[in-house]
Structures are given as C-alpha cells and as structure tokens.
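User: structure tokens for this one?
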Amino acid sequence: LETENMAVSLAIIGAGIFAKERYAPALNRLHKTGVFELKAVYSRTASSASSLDEMLECKGTDYRIYTGDSLETMLKRADIQAVLLIVTIPLLPDFVELCFQHGKHVLSEKPVAPTVKAGEALIHTHLTAYPDLIWAVAENYRYTPSIVKAAQLIRDGKIGKVLNSNFVMRATIPTTSKYYNTDWRKDPQYQGGFLLDGGVHFIAMIRAVLGEVTELSAQISQIQPHLPPSDTIVASLTYADGSLGSLVITFGLAADSELQSPILHVFGEKGSIIVDRKSVEVKTKESDSWKSQKDPEDEDFELGPIAGEIDAFLKGIREKKTDPAQVPKEALQDLKILEILLESGKTKVHKAVTPM
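Assistant:
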C-alpha cells in the first residue's frame, strides 16, 4: 500500500514541550504538501494530549486521542503506518520496540538510546527482526541548512585542508527553565543529564562538518548544583583527517554570564568558516587581503529542520529506504562520542573512538 505518491498515515506518541513547540507547527506546515495524514495522538495524561491536540491543524479522517493504558489499542490500528516518537530518553528503547512489534515505521527523537549498549541492542533487534520497517532517528542539526552548507564548502575545498577547529556552546539552565522543570530532566535517570540530552546535537554538528572523531580527551565538571551529574565538558579532539579541535559545552553558566549559542569555527589552509544554526561566514584570502562573505541569517532555523526531517522520514517510507542522515548508526556514533567524552572526563584518560 505504500507507494511513492501515497500520503503516509501517522500517529504521534508523546506530547511534551518539544512535541507542542516544534513538531505541531512543523506538521501543520508540512500537511499542506499532502505527504501525510494524522490519525492519532497518544500521551500518558489526558491534559498533555489535549494541549497538543489543540495545536494541531492537520488532523485526518478517523483521528483520535489516546491516553493512559490505551497505547497498544492505538498501535493495533491497521490504518496507522508510522509513528513519530517523542518520549523521554529512558523510555525510548522500549517504545521503539513496541512500535516495531505492531508493524509501525518509527521516527524517534534523539538520542538513539540512553546508552551505547542499549542503542546497539536496539539496532540489532531492528536489523534482524524488523528489517522491512523504516526506523529513523531525528537529529534536526543534520537538516539545518547552514550546517549542511558548511559541510559542503569544506568537502569542496573552499578553505583548503582543515588545520584546526573549535566548537563552543555556553548556556544557562536556571531552575525556572521550562526544560529543567520536567521530572525526567530534573532527576535524570540517564548518563550525563543535560550534556547527553543537548550534547548529541553538538556532536552531530561537528561530525557533519568535520568528519569522524578518532581520539579525544575530556574534563567534566558540575558548576550548578541543580544540574547533576555534570553540566560542563571541555575537550580536545582529533579528527580522521589528522586535524585537531577543541570543544566546550556548558549548561552551567550564571544567568548574567556571556552566553554563546552553538558555533563552530574551522580554520583551513586557505581561509576559515564560522557556522552556527542561522548562518555561515566564509573568510578567504585573495591577493594580500581577506574577503569575508556571510549569508543572511535563517529565521526558520528552528522549525525548518524539524519539517525537513519529518519529510525525509516520510519519503523514506514511500521509497523503502531510510534517509542517510537518519540512519540509527549515525545517531549511535553521536551517542558513542558523547559517552566516551563523559568516560574520559571521569577517568582523566585519553580515549580512542571506534568508527561506525
């Protein structure tokens, strides 16, 4: 029944902050293209399901809300082909496998799993028991136009051989933050806390632009007492091309500190590239002077990539092939590097990173 021209019938599992603030408006936008029909929404609580429902303008025929213990009832519906899975990190593996058991294609939010071991087991289960189902892992940084462009510029040799790079993300997560005030983040039952939840985005960004990390050495700390088990990583990295880079990720700064959204600065033999989620700036030397070219800022950097990754997932179902940017092994490598950073920080040991 899944042809290239057919709208894919979807259900949403999870109605938290990200589902409401990112997925709902992205789906409303994408629905105008006719690529999906939304059949159902599930959330553990009726209040969260209702609040997501109110934001959705893309409901299809036979649309229903499911709550509490009715998840499997929803998954048994033969008219639902695929699921957008937006649940908490500890629940991810069990929910992905439950969807597989009911024959559903899955787009699950990053990370691929709470640990590399759990991710490897889930990938093995998918490949051996459910190879005909599409499983994609959502990582919106891989669909962010500025990041995609920076990666292409480096591949095209715009700044020559990469010599050095540095990545910086400095943020504050106060106790008043809506993200902090979710039970699963306030008391994280998974490694790394915010460093895992947010950190995999930044690993995806550096890998997309610079390629694979082969070695690393890290230090970690907890600046803010309300952000266990750690909120800061400072690391040195070696990439597969032999270039060295630095990485700083912190969620632990004070509210009045100088903050920095994710930004990557890459230095090459013939120039440099500065990329963040909104734009790319290229500096190259011509004759005896430096020339700088910066793209206009992308005001759609929040929703555009979310719509892009959902669209790629739907296309993968129609064409029976997962988009390369969503293959679970890519997300597993992001998680592996983040996990090794945390291990290196705890043990103070330089670590090698095995390839995918």
